[in-house]
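Researcher: Here's the sequence for the chain we discussed earlier.
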Amino acid sequence: MGNLLTDWQFEPVVFGGVALAALLYYGGFAYSKRHGSARGVAWWRAACFGLGLLAILVALESSLDDLADTRLWAHMVQHEILIMVAPPLLLLGMPLLPMWRAVPLRLRRSTLGWTMRQRWPRRLWHTVGAWLLAPIPAFVLFVADFSLWHHPALYDAALASQNVHSLEHLTFLATALLFWVQVIPARPVRPRLGYIGRTLYLGVAGLYSSLVGGFFMFSVAPYYSHYAALERSAGDMSALVDQHLAGAAMDVPGVIVFFVAMCALLWLWLGEDQRAAAAEPARLTTSRAAVARARQ
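Model: Thanks. This is the structure I predict for it:
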């Protein structure tokens, strides 16, 4: 834990990207506050976005990244942070509109004007967005990306090459954002599924996560040659035990996150149902009054 708090790598690309996202979000947040609360961003959303950026830094820049070279369980914790922790927090921050408002007003106007005059950008956005932001393609991309990168050949390739490793983490984060945006509204993008549909969506993903985690926890031989070939001191855990712990690190946090998210969706659904039931008498009263006026 001491190393996790003090031993950081400070890679320029990662820290630069996180710093740029933070500056853009803060600029849009400040702009919204200056132009009235109706266009503002709630403080708790800004806090969620900041925690999401912090989670990315912990996964990629802390000593956890160094530990992942020799411990498979640490590598799985790293992946879980990039897939289960950072994306939901970032989306809860509603980042798109604040970051867009951070762009200078003149540039925003010229960009929107050019987009409105040209047809192909709108067609491209509608075509690509209609496919990428649909629940089934997003789920397939999420599952396919996670499964392929955990294949022994690709996993060992990522450990052997820093560029491949960075690509792995980038695609994890990108496909996880596509997956979670089906559940968490991030204006102007809204989920196409209702509360029950989103709950089932997470339930299926949770079953997949448990299946893959169990595949590691109950394995009988090491899957990855990189970890199997490491020299281990006397009393150190074996590669197989490390793999079992990696399965637990994959399964348990995922189950907790999915369970909490499903409970939140059910709570929102019940609240919406109660509000609709409470509004029904008022609607009937209004309808009856309108009928009475029409008869008069």
